[in-house]
Each structure stands twice: as structure tokens, then as C-alpha cells.
Amino acid sequence: VRDLLIRNARVWPSAYEDVIEDGSILIRDGLIRKMGRFRTRAETTLDAEGCLVMPGFIQAHVHLCQTLFRGAAEDRPLLPWLQEVIWPLEAAHDPDTLRASARLSCAELIRCGTTAIASFETVRHTDAVLAAASEMGMQGLIGHCLMDETGGYDPLCVDLDEALGLCDDWRDALPENSPLDLALAPRFALSCSERNMREAVAFARDRGMRLHTHAAEQIPEVEWVMEQTGMRNIEYLDRIGLVGDDALLAHCVHTNSAERAILRDSGTHVVHCPSANMKLGSGIAPIPEYLAAGISVAGGADGAPCNNRLDPFVEMRHAALIQKLRLGAGALPARDVVDLMTRGGARALGWDARTGSLAEGKQADLLIVDDRGFSCAPDADPAVNLVYSCNADSIRAVLIRGRIAWDEDGLAAAEEDEIFDQARAARRRLFQRAGLM
Ligand SMILES: [Zn+2]
């Protein structure tokens, strides 16, 4: 049993709570045992030197498998972006290139303060992603992608029963109390038949797995769903059962009031990816309206090829600024943005009892952030600093389940140079296989 005491900290338990000045946090077995103003001794003591200590960010929509494609699909709208570059590269992945991509992704995510994820992988070898994420000390829900219709691009179409059988095998192989689990991720309405989506929903519900999909990202996609089904995208997902408090819908940029009522009444989690929405020219998701309606909203960077960073600070800044452009300066205050990138993510994963805020009994998933230097000084509100002034270089340490995953000595799980070298070599092999170089 190892004790870790963080002392001399400005402890910020969650977005809407006040900072505890000169606070301490005692961690044992990965959990926060005591938090507040107290004095005690522990095996290891970490002096936060007056820095902010706050919950880690939770990114509820990322694609670990796409990080090797960074910079390879620039300046295209969604459907050509997928069909011309992303899908051929996903189809060319093997376990080794997936492992390299997932390790690079987790390194960046952790370095930038992300302590849990809901990810969206490809249709094959998701066990390689689980293994790589585990090795890197990441936690969260790794989504196994399902596709059976692509309108002309078939290499990613897989047999549903076979895919679901693999999911059972991979879940059975996870250790007890694994910090990772599998989610089912039917890609989106355009790449999945109705039968595929309905069976995925039934399978996931039977096993208590979460469902993760993309919805209402761009207008041509919404129009296509309307043509095929006679329904708006969220109405269609409602009809086939792919809404609910176990469902994560990335984007939801284009929704009408009936669809918003479905999202609210079903407890569905919307995952906002503002940089990706800007880069693919998708539009601005009506996040303040969702929050006012009581819809659960989380945040995420989406894939590296449509961002190109996996940095929650960038997402928070963009999330706040694009709403002000749309609705005026009063829209989406900083605290709401921090809340959606922390507690909102925990809710989306179904993990709000264990992470998303700092409290006794919860996991020690936390960041030590120096918000006192350039761009921050002199003292400003921590939420305002986090959203507008800080960046990943403001982070001094990242703890996941009480363990230091990154600090100023580097990543705990691997050497950064080795990860970069492996990723470069894997990218070459992958692009050659896909015929893209
Ligand atoms: Zn995505």
C-alpha cells in the first residue's frame, strides 16, 4: 500500500466549486482518501508549489487509430475526407500499425492532461488498441467500429456476427477491474444497415456495454439519412434504439427541436468536437441550447486528421469562442466549458461515480497545473485561465488512478522518442499498403 500526499496545492474539486487554498490530497490505492486543509505524513510527498490541482480532462470522442493519418486528409468535407483517405487507411491497418497509432495517441492525450477517453477505433484488431492503451496507462472505453454498408467502399464492411463474437472474446480476455472496457461503435447511419445498428444496440444492452456513434455532423449526411429513411438523423437513431443514457453521439451539429427533445428525454450524451466541426466545415453545434435544455454534453478532439491536435485546452478555447461568434459574448461561460470537459465526460462514460471531479472516495485522476505565468498572471479565475490562457505546457503533472502518468521527467510508460520512431515507421508501412505514397 503506497501513500501519496500532494500538499501546498490550490485544490479545485470541480468547475462550479471554489478553490481550497493551501490544500492537500492524500491518495492511497489510486483513490482520494482525504482532501482539504489538513496536515499528515505519507510515504511519498509531492509539493504542488501553489499550483492548481484539478480533475483530469475526459475526452469522450477520439480516434486512436487515426493518429497516424495526421495531416494526410487536409481541406476536404466529411464524405470525401472519409472515402478518399480515412477509410483506405483504416482498411490498411494491421495490429502493429494500430499499436503504433494508439501508443502515439495515448502519449499525446496524457501529455495534454487527458485522464480518460471514449475512443472510436476501426473494424479490425481492436484488441491491439486495448493492449496499447493499457500499456500506456490510459483508461476508458475503446469503441469497436461496425460497418456493413459504405455505398461503394467495401474493404471495411465486416460480418456483424463475427464482429460481435470478437467483442465477447476481447472483453472476456480483459483482466478483472480493468481500467479499459470495450464499447460498440456502429460508425454512423450512412455506413451501417438498420439491421446492423439494431443488433449492435441489442448486443450492447444485453452486456451493459456503451454505444458510441456519430450523428448529424454535416448537412449532406442529414439529407442522405432523410432520403433513405424519411427521418431526421436523431429521429432515426431514436427509432432503432440508439439513444439513451448509455449512448454517446459525437457532433449533433444539425438538430431540430424534435431531435433535441429526444436527446433530452432519453438522457443521450452529446460529444462536442469544436475543432473538428470547424476544420471539416460542419457548422457550430448548438451547445448552449443543449445545456439549457438539460442535455448531457461532453467534449473531445475527434481524430488527428480533422483537428490536428488531441489537446483539450484547444477544444475548450474553441468551444467557448465559436458560441460567442454565434450568440454573443455572454454565451457559454468558462465554467460550463471546464465542466463539460471533466464531469460531462465522466457522465458520458458512465463513470461519474469514480472520476470527473475530485472527492474523497473517487479515483485520483488529476492534473497539477501552473496557472500563474505568462498569459495567466496576475490572478484570474481558474476556469477563465484554463479555457483562455493555459495550454498543455501549463501542466506540471498528470495522475491517472493515483499514478504519475506524465511529469516534467516525461511519460511514465515509455520513452517519447521511441514512440515517435515507431509511429514514423508504421506510418510509412501503412501508407504504402494503402497505395497513398
Ligand atoms: Zn469521429
Question: Can you walk me through this structure?
Answer:
The protein is of the alpha/beta class and 437 residues long. The chain has helices at 78-92, 95-111, 126-135, 160-172, 194-207, 219-229, 233-239, 257-266, 274-279, 287-292, 312-327, 334-341, 343-349, 382-389, 416-433, and strands at residues 3-11, 20-28, 31-36, 44-47, 52-55, 57-62, 114-120, 140-146, 180-186, 211-215, 247-251, 269-272, 296-299, 366-369, 395-400, 403-407, 410-411. A hairpin with a 2-residue loop joins strand 2 (20-28) and strand 3 (31-36). The radius of gyration is 21 Å and the shape is globular. The relative contact order is 0.17. Bound molecules: zinc ion (ZN). Residues 61, 63, 120, 214, 250, 302-303 line the site of zinc ion.
Averaged pLDDT: 96
Uncertain segments of ≥5 residues (pLDDT<50)? none
* DSSP helical segment count: 15
Structural class: alpha/beta
Q: Which percent band covers the strand fraction?
A: 15-25%
State the distance separating the first and last CA atoms. Answer: 52 Å
Write the layout of secondary structure elements.
Blueprint: E1 3-11, E2 20-28, E3 31-36, E4 44-47, E5 52-55, E6 57-62, H1 78-92, H2 95-111, E7 114-120, H3 126-135, E8 140-146, H4 160-172, E9 180-186, H5 194-207, E10 211-215, H6 219-229, H7 233-239, E11 247-251, H8 257-266, E12 269-272, H9 274-279, H10 287-292, E13 296-299, H11 312-327, H12 334-341, H13 343-349, E14 366-369, H14 382-389, E15 395-400, E16 403-407, E17 410-411, H15 416-433
Parallel strand pairs: 1-4, 1-5, 6-7, 7-8, 8-9, 10-11, 11-12, 12-13
Antiparallel strand pairs: 1-2, 2-3, 5-14, 14-15, 15-16, 16-17
The chain binds zinc ion (ZN).
